[in-house]
Design brief:
single chain; TOL_plant; globular; ENTH_VHS; Serine Threonine Protein Phosphatase 5, Tetratricopeptide repeat; mainly alpha; 64 residues; 4 helices; TOM1-like protein 5
């Protein structure tokens, strides 16, 4: 679940940051440690993307 949210929030097709998904990720991570690990793993993967927008959105998710 966390990985799907991170992938949606960091999609290269987005024109701007999807704050709704970012907040959902934060709430999910705050309530479930396993989901937190999955989210961090997904964010790290998205940071390695070739698309600059994906990298930018991954950074935005990680600082929230």
């Amino acid at each position: 679940m966390a990985a799907e949210l991170v992938n949606g929030a960091t999609s290269e097709k987005l024109a701007e940051t999807d704050w709704t998904k970012n907040i959902e990720i934060c709430e999910l991570v705050a309530h479930d440690k396993r989901q937190a690990r999955d989210a961090v793993k997904a964010i790290k993967k998205r940071l390695g993307s070739k698309h600059p927008n994906t990298q930018l959105f991954a950074v935005m998710v990680s600082i929230i």
